[in-house]
Specification:
With 598 residues, the protein is an alpha/beta fold. It is built from 21 helices and 25 strands. Helix 14 (389-394) links the parallel strand 17 (378-387) and strand 18. Helix 16 (461-486) packs across helix 17 (490-496). The longest helix has 36 residues, at 2-37.
Amino acid sequence: MKSFFKFTFASILGVIVGGFLLLFLGIMIIAGIASSADKAVTVKNKSVLEIKLNKSLADRGADNPFDELDLPGTGSSSIGLTSILESIEKAKTDEKIKGIYLNVSDISANFGGIASIEEIRNKLKEFKETGKFIVSYNNFGYSQKAYYLTSVSDSIYLNPEAMIMLLGMGGERTFYKKFLKNIGVEAQVIRVGKYKSATEQFFRDDMSDESREQTMAYVGDIWNQILKGISEERGISVDRLNELIDAFAIKKAADAKKYNLIDGVVYQDEMNAILRQLTDIKEDKKLRKISVSDYAKSPNANAKFSKNKIAVVYASGAIGNEQSETAIGPELANTIRKARRDSTVKAIVLRVNSPGGSALVSDIIWREVELASQEKPVIASMGNVAASGGYYIACPADTIVADKNTITGSIGIYGLFFSGEELIKNKIGFTTDSYGTNKHSAFGGGYPLMVVPVSSRKFTKTEKAILQDIINEGYDTFLTRVADGRNRSKEEIHEVAQGRVWSAVDAKENGLVDVLGGLETAIEIAKEKAGLKDDYRIVSLPKQKDPIQELINDITGEAKTRFLKFELGDTYRYYNQAQSIIDLGGIQARLPYEIELN
């Protein structure tokens, strides 16, 4: 028996020691990968910068060596807008780079919004002025978004059997009124402003006239911008483009070639031959393609060091109680405070890409932006969406810059609460009994389902009136913040507020935006206001986590999300939208839906 226990104990000890050894070995391998990622990359003569669109597009590039592994639980499966813009800028003066190859064969369905696409497209137009070439190819067919980006190319090529889809801007919204009624739940909505359609999907079966009006306005503006851009590059009138699209005349590669939307119908090997010819590489030699991630590791002759800094503070994602790479939390206020107090930071660019969220957290961040603007130039740069709470945190800036395809506005607040009296009492069979020391101790009822935010009863008239007062006061505060930031009266702001969503073009017309442009435009304005000329460098905030620590976090707490993203791929966003419905509850300053214009 003793030998049995000794053998068992030894086996257990061996497993534990072996596990630690494997863990140690894994950490050493990971550290090796991370250290090797820091090594400089040498760019060969006659190289072509290959920009692939096979990952989702984030505002900020992550210096993460695991991104290239494409394994579940590692890397972010995204590419940074800043990384692409910086690579194009560097390639403009790099004699070893002969041109740019837009390889959109594997374009990710969620690769960026139209505003981000516009920023890349504008940078590519700058690159063309150097006389270097830009060519694009797609093996599987151009989506509308991909085609708009690549329309700036000198030459566009497509696989003979691939499709090209130009359909116009449109989509559907899902309404939950009947579903909620079927399960015995009722949405209790308190809102301000006729255009604050944030909660309509919970108490209507279709879009209200006001919601349709504002949607068609900003969708129409963006579509017109896209058509205009294609028209200018391809020499086809806007009217003719609309005519072809309405007739569904463009389906396959041959159609696109016939109507001058592309320049050639070729296979991949033929595309490679074209690239060899453009780069003067012999047929028996390998093409010298270099990716954005590798090119970022090559020496940059334009790089400079200066003690003067322009801090680009990234505010990306919904506004809530926790800060992460994809969400905005109260910690962002601390980041802005540190930038304000740092004497080497001469100006701040607040890059906002957010549909809004918590009204309280928005106000916490607003306060720090307001304080910073009193001490140094603060420029707001709006990405794809900077609406509701996203506009709230941007409004104290000295100058608000937005891309012409940015979605903004939605100045309003709503309260959304779910009552499940029918579900809880009649369908499930729970009963509740209230008690309390004061008149409103049981305000709103209880939440007997625990994990689901559904109350046991409807609000009383008094409770609803109290909440309406809170919402009205919140809206008044929002108007005050915007009016002060825009140097306008509250009455003037109310006329363009009321929850209405605007395209940046219209927002500039009504005074909510000052300048149309991208992140680089905002940085240029910050430089001028700070009087820096060319003596400055860019620092990105908040500081990103160390990739090793990020991996440990994945293993210990965030692996579930990573694995879901890996397994679900592009469909993860639908899962995420379903999960976020619960987050729409309470008092919010946010867009209620994800605007996807493909």
